[in-house]
Amino acid sequence: MNSHFKIFIPFYNVENWIARTVRSVKGQDYKNFECILVNDMSTDKSLEILEKEIANDNRFKVICNAEKRYVIENMYTAFDLCKPNKENIVVVLDGDDWFSRRNILSTLKETYDRENCWFTYGSYVEFPSMTVGKFAKQIPQEVIQSNSIRQYPWVTGHLQTFKYGLWESIDREKSFKEPTTPDKEYHFMYGWDLAWVIPLVELAGERAHYVSDILYVYNRENPLNCDKIKHQQQLLTEQTVRGMEKYEPLESL
Fold first, then answer.
1. What is the torsional sign of CA 74, 167, 60, 210?
2. What is the pLDDT of residues 43-97, one digit of tens each?
3. Mean of the pLDDT values across residues 102-125?
4. Does any domain span residue 137?
5. 220, 126 in Cβ contact below 8 A?
6. Most CB atoms within 10 A, among 42, 101, 185, 230?
7. Peptide bond before 194: cis, by omega within 30 degrees of 0?
8. In a domain, 252, yes or no
9. CATH number at residue 111
10. For residue 252, which phi and psi values (nearest 5 degrees)?
11. ∠ at Cα 8 (7, 11), nearest 5°?
12. Is the pTM of this model over 0.85?
């Protein structure tokens, strides 16, 4: 199967790392991809550096927000631009992180073809220590079978990828609106990955697949890491998401 990847990169004030992030995408040995980068009102030189890196490579497109939108809204904006079909594979890469090697996309293609999966997660190392991340673990089979992911400790770490048809099955009103701030469009400004990863794992069911190979480098040098500056808000997001109604696994996309 000739898989096509949609790589989504949200970023904010990542001038020290964005070049490395983009180069890790440009250097992939599998070339069938489109990369959408969303600049969420950076105030440093991130955009200037990015534009030099992508130059005239038409596989890369940049969206610059006029107001702060945060990651979930940025994902919808990116999808509206690149218009993925149900079989396209979405890869989420933070703007201060990078792929661990040149064959990440080809590894993912082989995994999706071999496993007939709809969602993949794991594994990553932390930079600069290069130690394996504590959330790079497989969800036990009994948790998948009982659809009890909301009761199980968070382990669904980077690299997270999914077929777009799975994303289309998420109810935006049900899953992405925080009850404490109903005046805004989409929320979960911190800990946003729990808000979409947990529903996707539930919807994928037996078609969620753990990849043990190290695919992702998670940058711990950035002082703006949410767990450093907004940890309490992350915990509140987790509590909210775990209390939401769960999804049942899909039979087809």
1. positive
2. 999 999 999 999 989 999 999 999 988 888 899 999 999 999 999 999 999 999 9
3. 97
4. yes
5. yes
6. 42
7. no
8. no
9. 3.90.550.10
10. -155, 160
11. 135
12. yes
